[in-house]
Automatic annotation (TrEMBL):
Organism the protein comes from: Staphylococcus cohnii
GO molecular function, one term: rRNA binding
Signal sequence range: none
Protein name listed in UniProt: Mini-ribonuclease 3
Subcellular compartments: Cytoplasm
Amino acid sequence: MNNKLLNPLTLAYMGDAVLDQFVREYIILKLKAKPNRLHQEAKRYVSAKSQAQSLEYLFENNWFTDEELDIVRRGRNAKSYTKAKNTDIQTYRKSSGLEAILGFLYLEKNQERLTSLLECIVKNVDER
């Protein structure tokens, strides 16, 4: 299957799960806290606002290849029929773009690049 041809919102759906799982493992190992505290901490990394800020950081640092930029743009520009909760539409779309590239790299089984991206996102949030 050519993962580039998948609906970008499908890629974002996968990417959301990938980011959530990575962040949960990261904060569990970092904090060793109770679930409520873990949930509060996880929101710093996986909220649409945080994802949009991470995407801007990645753009500023020319992190993406041309192929990856295409996936990000498709994810960002995809028309979603669900309403963004607790954020504006531009922030929601940027977060969808970031999730789309995460989903794409995961489905492509490009583990090295995916891990590098996830680590960069976490580091960026930690530094804010």
